[in-house]
C-alpha cells in the first residue's frame, strides 16, 4: 500500500513546527528556494538552488554552474562570516523524470565536476577560461573509464593517454581487500574496450603484454622463417627474381638488396610496435 501525503503548510511553517516538536534535533534543512534567508535566521543549510542539472537545457550555459557562489546573496545584504558557517555545503541535484538510462549520465557529467570545484575552491577561483581545460581533462578521464560524459566545449575528442578503460569490481577481478585498502587503483581496471572509449583507447591488449625481448624474438623468428622458405623455393625461382629479393643463389646469404629489405622490415616492425604496443 502506498500512502500519499499532501503538504498544506508553507515551508516556513513546516520548519518552525519541526523545530518546536523536535527541539533536540539539530536543524539542518535542505531547501530549494530562499536558502540564504534561512541561513540568516540561524538554520544550517545544504545549498543546491543553482545546481539543478536537469535545468541545464542549453549545455553552452554550463559556466553559470561554475560561477554560482553559495555565499552570494544578491537580493539581500551579504552573509556575515558567522552566517557563512551555516552553509554546511552544497549538492548538485538531478531529477530524472525526463531522462533515460542512456542519457542521464551525460546530463550529470562533466557539469557536476564544475559544481565540485566550486565547492572546494575559494570564492576568488572563478575564471571559466582557466577551468575549461580542467573540466575537459575530467571529461576525457570519465570517457576512458566508460562513463559517457557530455561535450561542453567541443569538438570533444580525447587523445589516447593509455589509461585503462573498464572498471571491474574487485570481486570479479581477483583483487584482494588488502589491495583495495592499500589504494592500488590501477589493479581495479582491466584493459577492456568500452562502448564509449573507441576514440580514446587504441592500444592492443596483446601488444601491451609483450615485452621488448618477446617482440625481438618474434621479429628474428619471422625473418629466419622467411629466409628458410625462400631458400627452399630457390630451385623454383629464377636467378633474376632471387637477386631482386636480395638473396645470392650460389650460397645462403644476403646481398646488398637483401640487407636493405631486412633493415626496412625491422624498421617497420619497430614503428608498428611504437604505434600499437
Automatic annotation (TrEMBL):
A GO term for molecular function: beta-N-acetylhexosaminidase activity
Biological process per Gene Ontology, one example term: glycosaminoglycan metabolic process
Similarity annotation: Belongs to the glycosyl hydrolase 20 family.
Domain Glycoside hydrolase family 20 catalytic: 26-122
Keyword hit for Membrane: yes
Protein name, UniProt field: beta-N-acetylhexosaminidase
Reactions catalysed according to its record: Hydrolysis of terminal non-reducing N-acetyl-D-hexosamine residues in N-acetyl-beta-D-hexosaminides
Enzyme class: hydrolase
SUPFAM superfamilies: (Trans)glycosidases
Keywords: Hydrolase, Membrane, Transmembrane, Transmembrane helix
Top-level taxon in the UniProt lineage: Eukaryota
Annotated TM spans: 216-237, 258-276
Any one cellular-component term (Gene Ontology): lysosome
Species of provenance: Fasciola hepatica
EC number per UniProt: 3.2.1.52
The keyword Aminoacyl-tRNA synthetase is annotated on this UniProt entry: no
